Amino acid sequence: MIATRIIRIIEDIVGAQHVSTADTDRLCYSYDATQRQHRPDAVVWPSNAAEVSLLLKMANAEGIPVYPRGAGSGFTGGSLPIHGGLALVMTRLDAILRIDEANLIAEVEPGVVTRQLQKAVEALGLFYPPDPASLKFSTLGGNVAECAGGPRCVKYGVTKDYVLGLEVVTPQGDIIRTGGETMKGVVGYDLTKLLVGSEGTLGVITKIILKLLPLPAAKKTMLVLFDSIDGAAQAVAAIIGGKIIPTTLEFMDGTTIDCVRRGTDLELPEAARAVLIIEVDGDVDLIEKQAATILQLVAPLGVVNTWVAANSEESESIWQVRRSVSPSLRKVNPDKFNEDICVPRSRLPEMIRTIEAISHRLQIPIVNFGHAGDGNIHVNIMVDKAEPDQEQKAEQAIEEIFTATLQLGGTMSGEHGVGVTKAPYIPMELDPAAVAYMKAIKKALDPNNILNPGKIFLQD
Amino acid sequence: MKRLDRHKTLADYRQQMDQCVKCGVCRAHCPVFGEEGREAVVARGKVTLAHALLNGDIEPGPQLSESFSQCLQCGKCVRRCPTQVPVDDIVLAARREIVARRGLSLFSRSLTSLLRRPRLMHFLAGSARRAARLLFRRIPQKSGLRLRFPAPFIDRQRSLPALAKKTFRQRHPEFIAGQRDRPIIALFTGCMVNYLYPEIGEGALKALAAIGFNVMIPKNQGCCGLPALSAGDGASASDLATRNLRAFGEHQPDQIVTLCASCHSGLTRHFCDLGPDYAALAERVVDINDLLVSQGFEEILQQLSQPAQKPKVAVHTPCHLRNSGLDEPPKLLLAALPTIELVKMNKANACCGLGGTFSVHHYQTSRQLGTVKANAVKESGADLVATACPGCIMQLQNSLDQADLPQRACHVLELVGEALSKGSTELT
């Protein structure tokens, strides 16, 4: 519980209508897409950096935890108020401040929804590539804090590759600017890179300067069906090895195909045990050539059928197949543990084989799909928590999968972050000295541990 | 005697509530969230609150009522939900739960008491017409008519549909004979057509006459019950359902035809909960546009003569037709009408912002949503915006008037009726 005296102070800072201790609001800001719930003591909706600064100064003085939050659509609990305190909702800061066509940059506030920025820049013939599946509702602030990815990252890179500069309120309430508007800049430490993906533990983002690209002229989408999962995995390696980087290279395994078969007009024969959705973009001549080369490269790898979209409508029905995956998985089992491991691209076939072996040995369905082009696979361990020992088996599977991932030179999270759900596994991937280095940074910047406490690192 | 609510309870939706994975997709689609921006308004927030209410983690109170009142029942969140959680039904069940525990005062007692009493409503409608625009200053604050024809009326700027001098059911006999070998259908007039927009009903009668149907208009029919359900008054909705079951059941019509997307929704979706008799009746309910298209009405329309001047018409799809998968029939009829020119409109599927009791509680948000639609009508270059729901028509017309736009909102059946009259004049 927060004392009334403190609520009065917060009211003075943000205005009485922008803070709430109502049970309804405390419940509605208790969750994110992990489905875990932790109620904050109060919910605050600031409107600018100055207010955030005052709130953080007050929080330090009073020892109140502060949990920054965008749309609350994260998969690892980055925004969950696990120790109560304040849920700091950043969605009122939702202005696209400027789009600079001369310098190909955009300056935005953190509450802007990703898709809204994309629409605004595309209208000017420009392009903001990062495309997390949540782009229609997740915020750019959240994307930056978690370093969001998406299918197009194979060719275009992830959020951190587009952040040139930030305005940030430090955990102790100072307002600082990092980076800037230039494409280059090496004065001082690269705090921008440190803050991107820091999961709201090192500062509250209040402005973002983003790099833009020219919008590609055209794109071509292909759906290729393989008779084995190995064939598809080898195809990924063959395409990349053939010196072609498609825009997207999405992968679905046999179980995934079985789940989506009924929901699409596309013919997905039983013989198809894996699917790749390949998209190339650029000038029309170039993409025709690239598409032909890709089809040649994959042809010897057990292709059952190939479908090349003739227009944007056909392209859309291919993508519809991919988008229908996540919800359709419930047909396998009611509960899922969703991991997003990432391995070097050439190791993908081995990784897939290992996951299949684990699934087989533990007798537990594991469904794989995702961004094969950058080695980032969404591994879904499907269980029914109502059945005895299923949850335990899932945990064993996760641990074995992480071990195998790390042995292949990979990482246990490509784009979802650590938050609370992956915190227990951090010591598997990071050596103690690296963890100590990170904790030292956190301790120096946030000595009272008030900003998003309890995330990334397990409490001592 | 305590009246019974025979609808599903919140507990009946427990399993479906568990299907919500809090992914946040609804944030991209809820029109109310788009305006309000707070999680307690969006679908996953409401599901969380409904769950907490069911588990005793939260007590009914003004804030909970406020949250559940913030729903247009447009169903967009349900259509976009990856796990198809029926949030619209859950919101109605939560409203009933709150009313059951705390009484109707938390929503709108007077609204439903009026709708259960057709004669009182009839009387009020009569006096209302005489009072014209002063009506809503003269009718007491608590009068149900204020609630039924929502808050915009309280705003003196608001454009009012004129109340009909004679209600639709007064104007027409209980049975209108068609051809002997043709089906007998019953017309469900709905409150808005009966009291405010009889011309819609008359358009429908002309269309039904053109295909030789025999039409019954049972005098004892009442409100479809949707406004009562919307207000959380399950008992009144149950009473109304029983009244309608009696009024229509005794005649055994082949089909019961609705002229209003919301009535269609009220009679189909919500009747099914109440038992086999009601479900059997619900199965015979058909929207007028759907019925006409199934009878090949486009061919009749195509044969009508073309005028020199054709008004440009944009189409607004009512949420309550869209949710029943009936977006197409109104468009097919309009496309076949040689008397108009169909034009494309952006945001044709966006909710008009009325949402039954929503606009009572949240007039500002309702107005903002209406402004978006009015601008879309303007940009389309249309002279008329046609739809298939009198509720939408009232809201669209007010939104156009507030924006000082000359366009008019009308029902598809008004245009069909006009075209049929002209066609027959030219024939004779």
Describe the protein's architecture and organization:
The complex is a heterodimer of chains A (about 450) and B (about 425). Chain A has about 450 residues and is of the alpha+beta class. Chain A has four domains: about 5-90, Uridine Diphospho-n-acetylenolpyruvylglucosamine Reductase, domain 2 (2-Layer Sandwich); about 95-215, Uridine Diphospho-n-acetylenolpyruvylglucosamine Reductase, domain 3; about 220-325, 2-Layer Sandwich (Alpha-Beta Plaits), CATH 3.30.70.2190; about 330-405, Alpha-Beta Plaits (2-Layer Sandwich). Chain A is built from 16 helices and 18 strands. Chain A has a seven-stranded antiparallel beta sheet with strand order 15-12-14-13-17-18-16, sandwiched between helices. A five-stranded antiparallel beta sheet of chain A has the order 5-6-10-8-9. Chain B has a five-stranded mixed beta sheet. In chain B, strand 8 (about 385), helix 24 (about 390-400) and strand 9 (about 410) form a beta-alpha-beta unit. In chain B, helix 3 (about 45-55) crosses helix 6 (about 85-100), helix 18 (about 290-295) crosses helix 21 and helix 23 packs across helix 24 (about 390-400). Chain B has four domains: about 10-105, Alpha-helical ferredoxin (Fumarate Reductase Iron-sulfur Protein, Chain B, domain 2, Orthogonal Bundle), CATH 1.10.1060.10; about 110-155, no CATH class; about 170-295, Rossmann fold (3-Layer(aba) Sandwich); about 295-425, Rossmann fold, CATH 3.40.50.1860. The interface between A and B is medium-sized, with 29 and 26 residues.
- Average residue pLDDT of chain A: 94
Name given to the CATH architecture of the largest domain in chain A: 2-Layer Sandwich
Q: Structural class from helices and strands of chain A?
A: alpha+beta
What fraction of the residues of chain B are assigned to beta strands by DSSP?
Answer: 5-15%
Give start-end ranges of low-pLDDT stretches of chain A: none
DSSP helix count of chain A? 16
General form of chain A: globular
CATH class category name of the largest domain in chain B: Alpha Beta
Sheet with the most strands: spatial strand order of chain B:
1-3-2-4-5
CATH topology-level fold name of the largest domain in chain A: Uridine Diphospho-n-acetylenolpyruvylglucosamine Reductase, domain 3
Query: How would you name the oligomeric state of the polypeptide chains in this document?
Result: heterodimer
Number of helices of chain B: 25
- List low-confidence stretches of chain B: 127-156
Query: Mind describing the biggest β-sheet of chain A?
Result: 7 strands, antiparallel
How would you describe the shape of chain B? Answer: globular
Termini gap of chain A: 24 Å
